[in-house]
Amino acid sequence: MTDKATPFREWMRSALFDPQRGYYARNIRTVGRGGDFSTSTTISSVLGEAIASWLATEIKLAPSVRTIIEVGGGEGFLMRSVMASLGFWRRRRLRFIMVESSPVLREKQKSTLQRSRVEWFDELPAALDACDGRAFIFHNELLDAFPVTLAKWDGTSWKEVWLEEHEGRWTEQLRDLSLSNVESEHFSALQHSSSEPQRRELGTAADAWLRQWASHWQSGTMLTLDYGDVFPQLYHRKPLGTLRAYLRHQVLTGAQVYENMGRQDITADVNFTDLMRRGEALGWCNASFENQRQFLQRHVRDLAKRISLDPALAFLADEDCAGAAFKALIQRVD
């Protein structure tokens, strides 16, 4: 085995977050004809309205919590919409924090929110410490970009995908899964298999991220919005898994994911079963889980009427499109 081989999760981490060559550090392009992808927040401001409505309800339930934190806020459009929808009088009583590790995105956020009273932190633990651990947290399309461990069932056991570079091209190797039996039990995708070959993504980095800052969070509620599902529905009719890349609005799968390293976004669907299990292990309450359409219906007035007038909103709420593909998980800590 050559020392050039690396676990897929480390390759993905470098491709996305390397300070010199990583996509999020240097090359991210989101919206527009020349962009790589669009997010819910670049399509419509209604998601910000819904989150603001959710926050207003949470503030009434926990009036001592006065800090709102968005993690990984893209170019800042969602926070701008949330703040506008909260209104002036409620805004002035609240503290707003953005957590962003990408220098490129942080500058774009500051441009978007330049007239707003917002603070920035590189990491969530520091942001939570600044407000004594009392905060409402939200993030949209964040966890899908965390590096994943790529597992393949070979008919008898789970193997881990590694990558080896040959003359600028990356090829796969299969090695023993580098997780202990105890660690493996945390990931629902490894608990079920079939006789047929299949691939599944394990959210090892997202799991580690939750554990990193959980002890800093003392009270509040967190809203996770992302595409994915519970297991096993997540992999229904997806024997090759959910891993894919986006380059100028083109979806790349299979070996194409290993091309254009550092110049494309790479993502995988979120396993919400694992998120809820981890939350429970950390002492959090899983308050609700629903799809994006249901979340919008609960928090946006006259949704049906607005859908009829706004094709972009119709896409976000349509249960044949983003309305069902995206999920909303609310977790609470007291």
Q: How would you describe this structure to a colleague?
A:
α4 crosses α12 (292-299) and α13 packs across α14. The mean pLDDT is 90. The chain is globular. The chain has 334 residues and is of the alpha/beta class. The protein has one domain (6-333): Rossmann fold. It is 35% helix and 25% strand. Strands 2, 3, 4, 5, 10, 14, 15 and 16 form an eight-stranded mixed beta sheet that branches. Strands 1, 6, 7, 8 and 9 form a five-stranded antiparallel beta sheet that branches. Strands 12-11-13 form a three-stranded antiparallel beta sheet.
Low-confidence sequence ranges: none
Helical content stands at: 25-40%
Which structural class best describes the helix and strand composition? alpha/beta
Shape category = globular
**CATH architecture type:** 3-Layer(aba) Sandwich
Beta percentage is: 25-35%
Furnish the topology, listing elements before pairings.
Layout lengths: L5 E2 H10 L5 H5 L12 H4 L2 H16 L5 E5 L5 H10 L1 H4 L3 E5 L3 H10 L5 E4 L2 H7 L5 E5 L8 E5 L4 E9 L2 E8 L4 H4 L13 E5 L1 H10 L6 E10 L14 E4 L2 E3 L12 E3 L2 E2 H10 L3 E7 H8 L3 H7 L1 H7 L4 H4 E8 L1
Parallel strand pairs: 2-3, 2-5, 3-4, 5-10, 10-14
Antiparallel strand pairs: 1-7, 6-7, 6-9, 7-8, 10-16, 11-12, 11-13, 15-16
Helix pairs in contact: 4-5, 4-12, 13-14
